[in-house]
Amino acid sequence: MIKRLIFPVLIIAVILLFGLTSCVKQDFDKPPSKDIPVGKVITIKELTSMYQGQPIVFDTAMSTYGVVVGDESSGNIYKNSYVQDSTGAINLRLINPGGLYVGDSIRIYLKGLTLSDYGGVRQLDSVDVDLNIVKLKTKINIEPKVVTIPELAGGKYNSQLIMLENVEFSAADTAKTWSDPHGLTTQNRSLMDCDNNVVVVRTSGYANFAGVSLPNGNGTFVAIASIFNNTIQLYVRDYGEINLVGERCTGGGGGGGGQGSGTQSDPWNVAYGIANQNAMPYEVGWVKGYIVGSVKSGVTSITSNDDILYSPPFNLATNVLIADSPDEKNYQNCVIVNLPAGKPLRSEVNLVDHPDNLGKWLNVSGTLRTYFGAAGLRDSNGESSDFELEGGGGGGGGGTGSGTQSDPYNVEFGIANQNATPYIVGWIKGYIVGAVKSGVTSISSNDDILYDPPFDLATNVLIADSKEERNYQNCVIVNLPAGKPLRFDVNLVDHPENLGKWLKVKGTLRTYFGAAG
Q1: CB within 8 Å of 4: residues ≥ 6 apart
Q2: Over the stretch 184-236, which tens digit does the pLDDT of each residue have?
Q3: Which CATH number, 2.40.160, 1.10.287, 1.10.260, 2.40.50, labels domain 145-246?
Q4: What is the rounded distance in angstroms from the CA atom of residue 37 to the CA atom of residue 56?
Q5: What superfamily in CATH does domain 40-137 come from?
Q6: Chain-wide mean pLDDT for the chain?
Q7: Which H or E run includes 235?
Q8: Residue 262 contacts residue 101 (beta carbons within 8 Å)
Q9: How do residues 500-510 score in pLDDT, each as one tens digit?
Q10: What is the DSSP string of 69-98?
Q11: Class of domain 270-393
């Protein structure tokens, strides 16, 4: 009896297992899919041409195809995407962020969408990625179209991926960051070619590169072209596609440029002053140029040449603009010099009281950092020793050496000019005579110094004008930063043989271990 039941039971079990397996396989092999109609197919050019001044709501089944060339990945574009085909491009305004990425080949189902115009840009409004978009492929590469700034006029390349060659940011804008990452506001910067054609680069404060300093050099620039009320605008989709590292149209670039060494006898020219704004650390030195004007009274941030007076009468004594040419009439080619109140630099140089100074050269010391939102020279002490004016003024000096690599300060100068306002940055030369002891945080006597081996702290060396010096008060303590050749090659723990050798090094004259540093 038991044997007779085994075979039927096995047959039933196999049937049940087969049925269960078939059901499970059916569920996984045929998942639910979008059933979005195609309808009539049109090109993007045909689509954008349908707009004739009034919004169009599509009420029939229609589709257009394209590839995504601009997405939200960098934070510079939000709830927007840009799609182009071989005939043109269009801006998609999304209901929700995300879902579309550069390189996606898509079909856009138009029924229910609105074709409109915003400031000159054709757009499809209220696009729902789930209901209006069918992805066909991914990672499709679209090469940017190489154009010139004049060719962008009129919005011919709106919403398309373009590349500009041989362009650079205006000299004044190189002192700025791409946008405002703190206030999160969207800001404009000026990109120009070597013929002075200019286009606006518009960047959101939410962009992941908003706080990055603008590049100083010349090169290629890839972006999405747009327009707003006849003003051409560019939107960067990927910071990595910006390659402005070459020599600028007027020379210099990529973090340098200009002439001079920054000393009183060999000052930087204005081109250098513009190209090296807000360096880290700040560049401090002398700049020489012709006085060409001053900022108008009431202006707090310069946005155009309308904010500048290039001829008398002048109405603001706090500043003058200097340029490499006495005929300059573009503030972007100038450095704005702050004239501190109550100092000879203001009383002798300002154009309100001395309009005859217009066109004279001015040689002045200070810090290269922005002023009125443009290239500036600030923080000058403003004394007679801090400037020279053609036909009058003058001074400067003190100590030995000028602070350049070829003519460094001596240690006496380094000690005498600690913590100056602004800090003095330059080269200094002296003999290595010792190092601060391990465990010392603030020097109070020579007992805190090792003048002979063995040495036990690699973070510093003391230099002096005499290799026989044994008084820390006649020395400058040089910081040797971790992980750098200055520490590897110079420290006395690993190289006691360096004792007595001369060292020439560049840095900022400010206290270290509570002593001259």
Answers
A1: none
A2: 889 889 899 988 888 999 999 999 999 888 888 899 999 999 998 888 999 99
A3: 2.40.50
A4: 20
A5: Nucleic acid-binding proteins (2.40.50.140)
A6: 87
A7: strand 231-235
A8: no
A9: 898 999 999 98
A10: EE-STTSSS-SEEEEE-SS-EEEEEESSS-
A11: mainly beta
